[in-house]
Amino acid sequence: MKIKKIQEEITEEFGMFDDWTQRYEHMIDLGRSLPLIEEQYKLDENLIKGCQSKVWVHAEMEDGKLVFTADSDAIITKGIIAILVRVLSDQKPQDIIDADMEFIDKIGLKEHLSPTRANGLVNMIKQLKLYAIAYQTQLN
Amino acid sequence: MIESTLDIQTLRKDFPILQREVNGQALVYLDNAATSQTPRQVIKTITDYYERYNANIHRGAHTLAQEATEAYEEARKRIQSHFNARHSHEIIFTSGTTHSINLVTHGFQSILKAGDEVLVSAMEHHSNIVPAQILCEKTGATLKVIPMNHNGELILEDYKKSLNANTKLVFFNHVSNALGTVNPVKKMVFLAHEAGAAVVVDGAQAAPHMSIDVQELDADFYTASAHKMCGPTGIGMLYGKESWLQKLPPYQGGGEMISEVTFEKTTYADLPHKFEAGTPNICGGIAFGAAITYLEDIGMDLIAGYENELLEYANEKLMDVPGMHIYGPSANKTSVISFNIEGIHPYDLGTLLDKMGIAVRTGHHCAQPIMDFYEIPGTVRVSFSFYNTLEEVDMLASGVSRAVKMLT
Fold first, then answer.
1. Closest chain B residue to A78 measured between Cα atoms?
2. Does the beta carbon of B363 lie under 8 angstroms from any beta carbon of chain A?
3. Contact B348 A53 (CB under 8 A)
4. B382: Cβ–Cβ under 8 A, 6 or more apart, which residues?
5. Tens digits of per-residue pLDDT, B128-176?
């Protein structure tokens, strides 16, 4: 599925909720479906900087597409990275680089977009895109 | 009950910010150890300054400059009397506690030498640890740590053993910012002086909550930040005994701190101006004075008594939450509770509490060595001020329970 399409799907899911409690509960649920990073990759070098909680991300190329796995020691952060992985995983590196992530605003997580926010959503997006740039450079 | 004596509801009306909503909920502000809120009286002092007598001090002959100078020096006297310093020139205006500490450590660079020892407590804020480390790197002195126990108290027996003829400088906080522990300052200062060491006490977390008498404590240096005492940010003070302040070299060069300047030689101004280079935070200094007056009008002893009541009530309510672990449950502490709930990341809890309008701090609280000591990534810290209510404690406790339900 195209990135845009997945974003629309997620926006629609979150649109069903009318208060923050339900949105956060859904996000916590999404965290449970996150494709988990293998233990061997849970290394300090795979940690995303700028987060109060730990977030590990690993990327691998499969048939020209970049597949992400991740984990976090905090449940909400795990939900956030799960949303990002659902949108950006299994996509071509160039599409990941080009992806517009403004949908975060629409699903009521705008407060997490602030660069001053300690969970580092901005850093997570940056890190996933950096992986894509690295693999795209190899392809070129 | 002390609450009725203090009339918290009337006091709360002094704080415009307490009327606002956060995420659609009435704000419950429990991050007072990070910064306190500002009463109208202090805000009015700030606007008055800019509307009526904004001018540079100690220089101009005109009326505005005179008025500003008088107000600034009057504030210094108010701070002197509040902390019971012997002289007003023993109060140096700084940008806050971090600046105060750095002023002292910079001065000691020309006093310490290799082989000397500097002691720092295990429960320090990074703003005490890092300047002490830099001081040791520059001078070749050795940094030693005063250890703490699981109750979050410094181990005095070990402290006594660490003190020796080589100990030149001892750093510790009056109250731990991460745990709220009140350290036995007077006793620790006495022991350091017996060994011939000077003592720097970081009073940032103590000054908002109790009366401080620097002469009684006998500390050589004592620091405070206005923004934790209902004053503005960017202003604080360093108290130093006259003899020490005369011994230390200036921290920064510039205007105000000089007596005479030629290209051959500059002579420095007398205390306190020797340490106040450049145009200072004039408005901040005056507002700091106003904040002190505000606190004194309420009464530091009433504040301490009421905050202790809040602490005890919050302890009781939070202990009812299953899996609750409170760090540093020392018998002698200010109104700070640092906690975790088993299996829950402090960051998750803090995020959900914020959604409920409850402001708390999560993380390592700039005291990573304490987190390493307890082997945790961080804690949730709630810190009360006299304008918090027992109802807000109830809201915190039910908010925590609600968040725990969502997270498990």
1. B348
2. yes
3. yes
4. B30, B31, B314, B336, B337, B339, B360, B396
5. 899 999 999 999 999 999 999 999 999 999 999 999 999 999 999 999 9
